[in-house]
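for ur thesis appendix - Putative ABC transport system ATP-binding protein. copy paste whatever u need, i formatted it the way the template wanted (i think)
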Amino acid sequence: MDRPIFRMQAVTKVYDTGGTKVHALAGVDLDLFGGELAVLLGPSGSGKSTLLNILGGLDHATSGHVWFRDLDLSVLKESALTRYRRDHVGFVFQFYNLVPSLSARENVQLVTDVARHPMPPDEALALVGLDHRLDHFPAELSGGEQQRVAIARAIAKRPEVLLCDEPTGALDSKTGVQVLEAIRDINERFGTTTIVITHNAAIRKMAHRVVRFHDGRITGVEVNQTRLAPRDISW
Ligand SMILES: Nc1ncnc2c1ncn2[C@@H]1O[C@H](COP(=O)(O)OP(=O)(O)OP(=O)(O)O)[C@@H](O)[C@H]1O
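the 3d part is after this line
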């Protein structure tokens, strides 16, 4: 771990839904460090996805500042934010968002065709243990395999940051563990700063640090003195 790659200062997010204001983030200060694997843990509606979307440049904070290194994301225009996302961030979501008519390799190729310094799609798929599934279509893959294709797609552009929103939310424990193993392997192999959102408390054990959320606020940050390998975690 080294200096902060992200700094959040007094970040708020207010959604205004026809007169009712929802304070999704109610003043968040958080540093995230280069190379760390952080788990954001909290109940449904506590603001985890909102925070991840702001870090990933998918959304703007209502107030406060968010820096990625020296870049203040909170003041970037849409086109600069799109460049930031394209060049630096890989996303993995709960539902894999693969294109059904494309093979695993072609799904990854969608990203490598437009990235600046991508790895070959076959290499990205090998990293997540899918070198034997290159020509399979999503419907021919299990949920866990589809999620690993989504991880391969996210890392094929060699992002500095990997943001995962409930990556095991749709998976059973055994398959979820394989997905977490792939995520941990990427973090260790490439030093990719990795943030994993979950409401599953068991997953916190694989993190360097655990950030707890409640009602749009951080209620605690813990450092894990001993981390567990995902294969030693079950739920
Ligand atoms: N686009 C939106 N419009 C209005 N309210 C929203 C919007 N997105 C999120 N919210 C609200 O903001 C709050 C925080 O939501 P968020 O999705 O960040 O929580 P979460 O901790 O990620 O929850 P979950 O684990 O269920 O995904 C919730 O009350 C949610 O209903």
